[in-house]
Amino acid sequence: GKYVFGICNGFQILCEAGLLPGALMRNAGLHFVCKHVNLRVENENTPFTSSYDNGRVLSIPIAHAEGNYACDDATFNSLEENGQIVFRYSDENGEITDEANPNGARSSIAGICNQDRNVLGMMPHLARMTAAGCSARWRLRSRESLSCNKKARELCSSRAKPFVSKGV
After folding, report:
1. Contacts of 137 by beta carbon, 8 Å cutoff, 6+ apart
2. pTM of the prediction?
3. What is the CA radius of gyration of the chain?
4. Is 18 left (phi over 0), alpha (psi -120 to 50) or beta?
5. Which of 7, 79, 130, 166 has its CA 20 to 30 A from that of 117?
6. Among positive and negative, which fits the CA dihedral 121, 124, 129, 130?
7. Roughly how many angstroms between the first and final C-alpha of the chain, as a whole number?
8. pLDDT for 80-90, tens place per residue?
């Protein structure tokens, strides 16, 4: 019943612990990738994304060598059917393209949740948007994305309010 939010290695741990389905594999190019990417919100019906509309594009940094989300066909179909895909890599217009997928993740998946929507795992690093060394332009570009980070902090604190689903 508690909220759990795993970023990057935390996402890997959630998958390895069986709290989320699938696995994170080496990036398709076998290289460490560190850059800013765009994510399209796929599911606004989670406590972590309820302040966004589906299709909203967020700009968030990544830094990983093992961010390639993988799962079998049955798991993928279940994720799709249950609305568990929360974020996908996209271009700045929200189009899902091979070029926008930085690591080869299946169907450009950048983040998923469990069926109860209280566990979220995502590869992009929300925490890197608050670093003091970030340029003002980068922080401005990421300001909207920070509300997801703020929401996660609130949910994971003891003062979290219960989430009321908008319906699936």
Report:
1. none
2. 0.80
3. 15
4. left
5. 130
6. positive
7. 19
8. 999 999 999 99
